[in-house]
Design brief:
It contains three helices and no strands. The chain has 92 residues and is mainly alpha-helical. The protein folds into two domains: 44 residues; 48 residues, no CATH class. Helix 2 packs across helix 3.
Amino acid sequence: MNEMPIIRLEVEQIKHQILHHFGQYQKEVSVAVEKQIEKVIGEFDFYAEIKPIVEKCLRDNLNGYFSYGEGNTMINNSLQEALDKTFKKETE
């Protein structure tokens, strides 16, 4: 039972030492992280990532336009005209 406080003190001391040493290198680590972020962003292929998203948005918008929007009206009108011509020829 007396050993628990000793172990806890040792762990707290190690924790304090780690935080102290990390604090000494915090600026250095921060600069290294910033450089890596800049490098990754500079080498990142945004086009490859954005292209499928834009294509999906385009497909979704086209689908909506031709299913529910003006495109749908245009298709229906064209179909109606074609059907009218077809059936007028048959009745003549």
